[in-house]
Every structure is written in C-alpha cells, then in structure tokens.
C-alpha cells in the first residue's frame, strides 16, 4: 500500500508512525493538524479562524479542512503515494475525499486504525512535550527529555501544546468518539480497514505497519 490513511484517537501514535513511513517509503505525510498549527503560528487570516476551534479541542469546519487537503494534493510530491494523518475526521470529510480521489483517478488503498484505550490516550497527551528546536516528542513520565541532546548538543526547548491540557483533552476525545469513530464502519464496509493495537512497544507497532505496507 502506498496511498493510505491513518485513523486513531488523538495521541494514538498516528503522527509518529506517519513520520517513520514517510522516511521509509519516501511518500509524504499529510497531517492536517500540522498544516492547521502552522497557519495558527503564522497568524494568517485562516489561521486565526482555526485557532478558535483548535485551542478548544474542537474540529475545524469540514469545508475548510477539505480545501486545505485539496491544495496540498496539488503538490508534485504526492505522485507516488501519500499518508493521510488526521484526515478525514468526519463522514463528510471522508465522502469529500472519495470524490476528490475519484476526480484524480486514484483511490485510497487502505486505512490503518491505531487502537488505544481512552485512559491511555489521556495520559499520553497530557504528558506530551515537543522540542521546538529538533521537533522530537517526549513525555514527562514515559520519556523525559534528556538535559542535553538537542541538535547542537544543547538543551531541548520543550513546548506543551495548548490542546494537550487536561481541560481540552476530554473535548478532543469526545470529538473522536462522536465524529471520527463512525469512519471505522465506513471503511470496514469498503473493505479497507486494517487494525493495529497501538498500545504496544514502538517496535511492535512498527513491525505491524511494515507488514501491512508490504514492501
Ligand atoms: P491533530 O494534531 O491531528 O490532533 O489536530 C489538532 C487539531 O487540528 C484538532 O483538534 C482540530 O482542531 C484540528 N484538525 C486537524 N485535522 C482536522 C480535521 N481533519 N478536521 C477538523 N479539524 C482538524
């Protein structure tokens, strides 16, 4: 498979796996969360709009996200394949993706569902910290950042995402349950769904992905 989508709750490891796949198979990760965060950081007019949703843990309106993905899919690097990470997140978005791909005369080859229990997602997200310099992800309890070890051997500059706060995480988990989880049946019905237990060691998850991708 080279045209895939990663499905899973916030903190299930989609982003981490997508980055590994991007490196290994030389196909781009398309993360709507990353695109949205970049627009917020740049404070573009669209970014300011996104901010009102994302900071509260709510989903950005379907139309806007679909337009972002359509734009991204115009880049030349998607010719050999792509890894959709965090999109689609609603049935409406999934249908828009189907239409978009049909128009492009291509198809989604598979959906990998990373399944992780909610209480683990909560702990992973609230403890997650990202270095703003080298972009590595750490966890206050499970993977503390070493004192030195950033790109130049200096200290990591750790950031805590606003939407990873204990107040906002439950809103995101609920958005997943209510708006995104219906995609599981949607893709099951299309015969495209593959399941990976996300609550295993990184190596085990990686090995299952490798098998599914089929070299
Ligand atoms: P993520 O990094 O994937 O957890 O996304 C962070 C935030 O960006 C989400 O909580 C939403 O506010 C927004 N977002 C990302 N992808 C989507 C999407 N496909 N549909 C709607 N909102 C999204």
What does this structure look like?
With 215 residues, the protein is of the alpha/beta class. 46% of the residues lie in helices and 15% in strands. It contains nine helices and eight strands. It has helices at 14-25, 32-42, 45-54, 62-72, 91-103, 118-126, 169-180, 182-189, 202-213, and strands spanning 3-8, 29-31, 82-85, 110-115, 128-131, 137-139, 158-159, 193-197. A five-stranded parallel beta sheet has the order 2-3-1-4-8, with helices on both faces. It has a three-stranded antiparallel beta sheet with strand order 6-5-7. A hairpin with a 5-residue loop joins strand 5 and strand 6. Helix 2 crosses helix 3 (45-54) and helix 4 (62-72) runs parallel beside helix 5. The longest helix has 13 residues, at 91-103. It is globular, with a radius of gyration of 17 Å. It binds adenosine monophosphate. Adenosine monophosphate binds next to helix 2 and helix 3.
């Amino acid at each position: 498979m080279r045209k895939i989508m990663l499905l899973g709750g916030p903190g299930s490891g989609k982003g981490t796996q997508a980055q590994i796949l991007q490196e290994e198979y030389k196909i781009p990760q398309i993360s709507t969360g990353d695109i949205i965060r970049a627009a917020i950081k740049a404070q573009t007019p669209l970014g300011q709009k996104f901010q009102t949703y994302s900071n509260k843990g709510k989903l950005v309106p379907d139309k806007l996200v679909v337009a972002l993905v359509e734009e991204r899919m115009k880049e030349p690097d998607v010719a050999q394949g792509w890894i959709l990470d965090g999109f689609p997140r609603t049935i409406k978005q999934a249908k828009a993706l189907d239409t978009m791909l049909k128009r492009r005369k291509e198809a989604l080859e598979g959906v990998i569902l990373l399944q992780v229990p909610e209480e683990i997602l909560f702990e992973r997200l609230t403890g997650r910290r990202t270095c703003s310099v080298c972009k590595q992800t750490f966890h206050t309890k499970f993977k503390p950042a070493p004192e030195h070890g950033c790109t130049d051997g200096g200290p990591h500059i750790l950031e805590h995402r606003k939407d990873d706060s204990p107040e906002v995480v439950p809103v995101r988990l609920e958005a997943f349950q209510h708006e995104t989880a219906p995609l599981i049946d949607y893709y099951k019905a299309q015969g495209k769904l593959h399941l990976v237990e996300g609550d295993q060691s990184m190596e085990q998850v990686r090995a299952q992905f490798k098998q599914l991708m089929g070299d």
